[in-house]
Design goal:
Helices cover 36% and strands 14% of the residues. By secondary structure, it is α/β, with parallel strands linked by helices. Belongs to the D-isomer specific 2-hydroxyacid dehydrogenase family.
Length: 313
């Protein structure tokens, strides 16, 4: 049997995922991260499974893969996989929802501390020999607004406890038991935006959430508030955000994701109150290893044991 991988980080730091597959005589074929449709179709002509990182796994790719029995996302978001086409062909699509939740939450909290205390600015200016004495705001005791109280959002709540932060949450499918146990108050999105000192986004990107944070939403936020996004760039209207930063409508933002990636140039980069990183929140040695092992096990589960994958979408 054969599995194709388009994820450059699959088994990058540990060969345990490869060992799991080899034990069951499953060959691994690696493709470049951004392989085109023709290259994908050629590689999948005799493949039984695919571990997806990047690349557009569209209807044509799926329908041109006669042996394909499972599609496993090396991560969480499956916006580059045509779920309808896979469903029509009876091919299960699965992901690893828990693999990087702690890594992403750590990173988001780190961004919050960095932007609030201006750590990135102090670093740059100190290295230039300025030795600045910079005044900034505290995080401790401030109100955190979590938009999307899923796995990562809940990890943010756990971290906020250590900083004695009141937590507001907005989620279309509220987990009342978790909220009660952790002192979280569910509110409308409008109320969350108006009351929070830090707003952190942890939502999937779909037609309901695309540019959810636009000019109107940004206008509801405090002028002293910060916006964080480690989820998907398309959740934010970036032109409206650039305008809000320019006009001082919010204090700043920290973004690990952008609507178009890689974002080599961007108007937001010109804003000194925008902290930008390159979609790396989930990139820890531990998370990459966990995700790779989970992907390998799910492929084995389907191909060898004929079982339903654990996290079928």
């Amino acid at each position: 049997m054969r599995v194709v991988s388009t994820s450059p980080s699959f088994a990058m730091y540990s060969d345990e995922p490869l060992q799991i597959l080899r034990e069951h005589r499953i060959e691994v074929v690696r493709l470049p991260a951004h392989a085109g449709e023709r290259e994908l179709i050629g590689a999948l002509a005799d493949a039984d499974a695919i571990i997806v990182g990047y690349g557009d796994i569209n209807r044509n790719v799926i329908e041109s893969s006669p042996r394909l029995k499972v599609i496993c996302k090396h991560g969480v978001d499956v916006d580059n996989i045509d779920l309808a086409a896979a469903r029509e062909k009876g091919i299960p699509v699965t992901n690893v929802p828990d693999g990087n939740k702690t890594a992403v939450a750590d990173y988001a909290f780190g961004l919050m501390l960095t932007i609030a205390r201006r750590i990135h600015e102090a670093n740059e200016r100190t290295k230039r020999g300025e030795w600045p004495k910079m005044v900034a705001g505290e995080v401790y005791g401030k109100t955190l607004g979590v938009v999307g109280l899923g796995r990562i959002g809940k990890e943010m709540v756990r971290r906020a406890k250590g900083f004695d932060m009141p937590v507001l949450a907005y989620d279309p499918y509220p987990d009342a038991a978790f909220a009660e146990a952790n002192g979280v108050r569910f509110v409308s999105l409008e109320e969350l935006l108006g009351e929070s000192d830090f707003v952190t986004l942890h939502l999937p990107l779909d037609e309901r959430t695309h540019r959810l944070i636009g000019r109107e939403a940004l206008g509801r936020m405090k002028r002293t508030a910060y916006l964080l996004n480690v989820s998907r760039g398309g959740l934010i209207d970036e032109a409206a955000l650039e305008e809000a930063l320019r006009d001082g409508k919010i204090a700043g933002c920290a973004l690990d994701v952008f609507e178009e990636e890689p974002a080599k140039e961007h108007p937001l980069f010109e804003r000194p109150n925008c902290l930008a990183t390159s979609h790396v929140a989930g990139y820890t040695y531990e998370a990459i290893d966990r995700i790779g092992v989970a992907c390998a096990n799910q492929v084995v589960s389907v191909l060898v044991r004929g079982e339903e994958p654990v996290h079928r979408l």
